[in-house]
Amino acid sequence: AMTTIGDLPEDVLVELLSLLPARDLLRTCRLVCTQWRYVVDLTTLWKRKCQRDGFYRQNLDRSVSDWKIFYMLCHLKRNLIKNPCAEENFQHWTLDDNEGDEWKIEDLPGAHGNNPPDPRVHKYFVTSYGPCFKSQLITLKKEGYWNQLMDEKRPEITVKDWYAARFDCGCRYELTVRLLSEDYIVLEEFHPEPVIIEQWSDARWREISHTFQNYPAGVRHIWFQHGGQDTQYWAGWYGIRVTNTSITLGPQT
């Protein structure tokens, strides 16, 4: 007769423990006994969790070096930019420059504009004839990304932003993304040349995307800033339009 859970065959124990949240496995189950610690550290257990949560694909087998970390990154993965599509007014954004007639929020497609490819996006932020820039500071630890993970695994950091002009006015778009240390020292930066869009453009929404890889150890914050202005100094809101910003960490599943 079986007397304890410890008598279960290893594969059954893997199956059972894989049902538990990762947090409980690492903080509690791992400390129960040497057998449980061994099972919790098994690649098969984390692979099983990936299968259960839909993170597993056959073609990943060769490329994943650590299934536990892979699971944690997939599980944590979400957009770290808050209020990316102007649904909550300017909440979570710091308005660094707010000149001309200031930042404004408008409904898509907007005057002399187009809809972006993603039908779930309904609003955008729009700039005026003076410099308009807004930013967000992301603190990685607050979002669940612990220091050792950032320093040893250096998960890919992917930044995406969408911008568009009005058909009837020229404008400029600028983007700066910085990976910062604990003391806000810049460890790496993505700051492409400003995009100048001429008057009578196609007014299409365009995506800009950048992935940070193999960056230095010590990244604790990500600072994101975008904005611009119109190039014809027209009163009102004829400048660059931005929406659907995202910053995600981890595997591109």
From TrEMBL:
GO cellular component, one term: cytoplasm
Domain annotation FBA: ranges: 70-251
Alphabetical keyword list: Ubl conjugation pathway
Alphabetized Pfam families for the sequence: F-box-like, FBA
Keyword Zinc: no
Biological process terms in GO annotation: ERAD pathway; glycoprotein catabolic process; SCF-dependent proteasomal ubiquitin-dependent protein catabolic process
Domain (F-box): residue spans on this chain: 2-49
Single GO MF annotation: ubiquitin protein ligase activity
InterPro entries: F-box-assoc_dom (IPR007397), F-box-like_dom_sf (IPR036047), F-box_dom (IPR001810), F-box_only (IPR039752), Galactose-bd-like_sf (IPR008979)
Record-linked SUPFAM superfamilies: F-box domain, Galactose-binding domain-like
Protein's name in the database: FBX6 protein
Organism: Panurus biarmicus (Bearded tit)
